[in-house]
Write a structure and sequence with these properties.
9-stranded mixed β-sheet; alpha+beta; about 150 residues; single chain; 2,3-Dihydroxybiphenyl 1,2-Dioxygenase, domain 1
């Protein structure tokens, strides 16, 4: 078994107003920001609400040691929208880079973690979110970058 939660890739923060948040970070010298690269079609794409997922807006910045992702959920029902409505702005998930998406998902499932959303592309890249909020304080995600 590998350890899927070893290499932190990003911290995702849910915000009410993406443009306002980016402007604030830029005023602190944090940037440049770029749109989340939603590259390639998924062979497998299992999310609670596809329309809400596609309507979310993201901006990212690569720091020296980690990426920050800002997420503005749409008004449509999604885990991110429910988090924002219940808790306000804040860290929604931690994303960990893995060498093998399928193996990391299997290893996390073997640890007893339930999958809440997942996606996989033909090149093996993709993601899986796990139901860890009540135990870890945040959602944990694994991802394989193309």
């Amino acid at each position: 078994m590998t350890h899927p939660f070893k290499t932190l890739h990003h911290v995702c923060i849910v915000v009410r107003d993406l443009d306002r948040a980016v402007r604030y970070y830029e005023s602190l010298g944090v940037g440049p920001w770029f749109d989340y690269p939603k590259s390639g079609a998924y062979l497998e794409f299992e999310v609670p609400n596809r329309e809400a997922s596609e309507a979310m807006r993201y901006k990212c910045v690569d720091l020296d040691n980690v990426q920050i992702q800002l997420c503005e959920p749409s008004p449509l029902d999604s885990p991110q929208r429910r988090f924002l409505d219940a808790h306000g702005e804040g860290v929604y998930h931690l994303g960990f880079e893995v060498p093998d998406r399928d193996q990391a998902e299997a290893d996390a499932r073997a640890l007893g973690l339930g999958v809440t959303a997942r996606g996989k592309r033909a090149d093996g890249s993709g993601f899986a979110y796990f139901d860890t909020r009540s135990q870890a304080g945040v959602v944990l995600e694994i991802r394989k970058t193309a």
